[in-house]
Specification:
InterPro entries: ACT-like_dom_sf, ACT_dom, Asp/hSer_DH_NAD-bd, HDH, HDH_cat, HDH_CS, NAD(P)-bd_dom_sf. It is an enzyme of class 1 (oxidoreductase). Keywords: Amino-acid biosynthesis, Metal-binding, Methionine biosynthesis, NAD, NADP, Oxidoreductase, Threonine biosynthesis. This is Homoserine dehydrogenase. It catalyses: L-homoserine + NADP(+) = L-aspartate 4-semialdehyde + NADPH + H(+). The structure is a single chain. This protein starts with 8 loop residues before the first strand and ends with a strand. The strands form three sheets. A nine-stranded mixed sheet has the order 11-10-7-8-9-17-13-15-14, with helices on both faces. The longest helix is centred in the first third of the chain and has 18 residues. It contains 14 helices and 17 strands. The protein folds into three domains: 146 residues, 3-Layer(aba) Sandwich (Rossmann fold); 162 residues, Dihydrodipicolinate Reductase, domain 2, CATH 3.30.360.10; 85 residues, ACT domain (Alpha-Beta Plaits). With 433 residues, it is α/β, with parallel strands linked by helices. The radius of gyration is 24 Å and the shape is elongated. The structure holds NADP nicotinamide-adenine-dinucleotide phosphate and L-homoserine.
Length: 433
Amino acid sequence: MNNAAVAPVRIGLAGLGTVGSGLVAVLEKNADWIEARLGRSVAVKTVLVRDLAKPRAVTLGPEVLVTTDADALVTDPDIDIVVELMGGIDAAFGLIAKALNAGKHVVTANKALLAKRGPELFALAAEKGLGLYYEASCAGAVPIVETLRSSLAGNRVQSIIGILNGTANYILSSMSEKGLPFADALAKAQELGYAEADPTLDIQGFDAAHKLIVLIRLAYGCNLPLEKLPVEGITVVTPEDIRFAREFGYAIKLIGQVRDCDGKLAAGVWPMLVHEDFLLASVRGAFNAVRVEGNASGPIMLHGKGAGDLPTASAVVADILALARDGMIPNNTGFRTEPLPEAELVASDDFVTPHYIHFTVKDQAGVMAAISKSMGEHGVSIRQAVQKGEPEDGYVSIVFLTHEAPNRAIDAVLADTGAMPFIKPGTVHFRVL
Ligand code: NAP
Ligand code: HSE
């Protein structure tokens, strides 16, 4: 076939940071394959940045306009698809809304925006009959968005359990395997381009929460407001707890999960103990993994690079190709109703899991008995209880692993033990997957 006369798909690219540069690099590196698949080439026409003088990781051709004027992307009739890779909420929302209003398909990697203002943007895209695609917003190169939207569309999804943040997983792996201090591991993740511009989103669990909200929308056809999702980050994880967990046969991982409980959803993001026999326990570095259980498919596990320039760009290119294919009817959320209803949640107090509790206590008679008594009174059954290490300033660590118990029972135990004079403040509690 001679494609010489076929116009390229023209991209207006907002953002030339880690992912934007990765996109330019992948479009160049794989140009022949992309053209073979699409029957057209893909060309970046205009690039929006904040700082025109900043050095860039990629070289753009002289034909590419680099600008600080966001309107240049949406008013140009030659631009077919606007690709938003700048992050943040307000400017990104404004750009995407303008692009859709101007009749352009949009690709974005911005999970924070999709979690917070996705319903408005999906409604607008549906009204305009345009595509708003976001494979890169969840788990980097891992094709979980398309998997939920299309490949598993014939299922009722029973659960999704994922390691959804590369930075957090990189930090926990580096602390566990190399004994790196938390701050050094975070600095390295930032240097490698894994972290968000505001890395507190990664370490406080909110980036994983944003992704979980996007996945819940795809799997269950409903919107979950961020403020209703229980979220805990990894700043509470210490080398000591990583070591204790390992001695019990567990890794500590930041897990985002949702389960269908008779139509209501039980969902949250927490650092959790994951038994070393589970595949998720062996996901290392900036890799992500998502386990989806469909009621027809059974369990499926996807694993791959969750962050970084080329892996994330791989997902962006997939969306560009999907939108550029002739005759495509955009399938944004995978559901026909717009706006989608709000998710109904199981109260997080009712969440039932096993638990890990690490007390630092005075090394004296009766302590173990007092804690065990409180657990018994609140119906928490102990699976293992171990005193760890040598006394330091008269205090020792005692670690409990419990059988399954609702979180409200553990909160009641922690309230009791918090008032016991022989227990140091700062008891550590993690759920066990
Ligand atoms: P980044 O390295 O900080 O790059 C952001 C780019 O956007 C920069 O080029 C910046 O311009 C430009 N920009 C930001 N705000 C702008 C504004 N108001 N007007 C014009 N240009 C603006 O970010 P990134 O890591 O590539 O991430 C981009 C998006 O992808 C975010 O939504 C992020 O959550 C998402 N994401 C990132 C990864 C990853 O591994 N990094 C993976 C998946 C998804 P200047 O360079 O001139 O400052
Ligand atoms: N900061 C994100 C992470 C980028 O570390 O997973 C990928 O979404």
